[in-house]
Design goal:
- The two termini are 24 Å apart.
- This protein is 42% helix and 14% strand.
- It has 251 residues and is of the alpha/beta class.
- A 7-stranded mixed sheet has the order 3-2-1-4-6-5-7, with helices on both faces.
- The radius of gyration is 17 Å and the shape is globular.
- It has a single domain, classed as Spore Coat Polysaccharide Biosynthesis Protein SpsA, Chain A.
- The protein is built from 10 helices and 7 strands.
- The longest helix has 22 residues.
Length: 251
């Protein structure tokens, strides 16, 4: 625990067998109470390896539910286990688990209810090998989102995120998409509910075994991001009422 609060790491996994061990070994178990691994019908032995290295809570989807669907299972299980703080860590080792402690203290000490690891603060993105087209798209989308949502995040597209129990129970993430746009919908919901988000500089790594999406999927994602941002804007000024912002989370 940290400051008397139960901290659970969730690992949304898809074909992560090559990097799972390395990711797991760097988790700071002096403060982390539990790990939840959700295998989204991998074609490798991700779930089997998870059992071998000692992960107690493993969910295997019988059908592939997508990146967003995987996260829903992760968060629901973490809350079921009594988590006070939940950190989403990609098991492909693109983000270092060594930042968990720094991020957790901000939530455990009631400074912020949400903390994300930003690849854009500092020089983490390009230094870590982010393709230049993704970097440019990231900067364009983030600028557009900040304008439409009246915020000042350095990026909205990192997969390294930590949440308080209050936030997860205060937004209806289960109504969101099962695809990659889930991440953006969740941040929009958080801002719409007037929670604040802290950012911490995060190095990142792009390599063959790290998960990524192709240009076609990236384009679909980018268009979805703009749609979510405009939805947020129209809901804030009162000319729309979208379900993701106005449907209460089920307890």
């Amino acid at each position: 625990m940290i400051k008397g609060k139960k901290l659970i790491v969730i690992l949304p996994a898809y074909n992560a067998a090559k990097t799972l061990q390395k990711t797991y070994d760097e988790i700071p178990f002096d403060i982390v109470d539990d790990v939840v691994l959700v295998d989204d019908k991998s074609s490798d032995n991700t779930a089997e390896l998870g059992r071998e290295i000692g992960i107690k809570h493993i969910i295997v989807h019988e059908e592939n539910k997508g990146y967003g669907g995987n996260q829903k299972s992760c968060y629901n299980k973490a809350l079921e286990l009594g988590a006070d703080i939940v950190v989403m860590l990609h098991p492909d080792y693109q983000y270092t688990p060594k930042l968990i402690e720094s991020m957790a203290h901000l939530i455990a000490n009631d400074v912020y209810p949400v903390v994300i690891g930003s690849r854009i603060l500092g020089k983490g993105a390009l230094k870590g090998g982010m393709p230049i087209y993704k970097y440019i798209a990231n900067r364009f989308l983030t600028l557009s989102q900040n304008i439409l949502m009246s915020q000042k995040l350095s990026e909205y597209h990192t997969g390294y995120r930590m949440f308080s129990k209050e936030v997860l129970e205060g937004i209806n993430y289960n109504i969101n998409s099962d695809d990659f746009i889930f991440d953006n919908q969740m941040l929009a919901q958080i801002f719409y509910a007037d929670y604040e988000i802290a950012e911490i500089t995060c190095p990142t790594k792009y390599f063959d075994d790290a998960s990524s999406i192709n240009i076609a999927r990236s384009t679909t994602y980018g268009l979805g991001v703009l749609k979510v941002s405009w939805m947020y804007f129209f809901n804030k000024i009162g000319i729309a009422k979208s379900k993701i912002f106005h449907t209460k989370a089920s307890k």
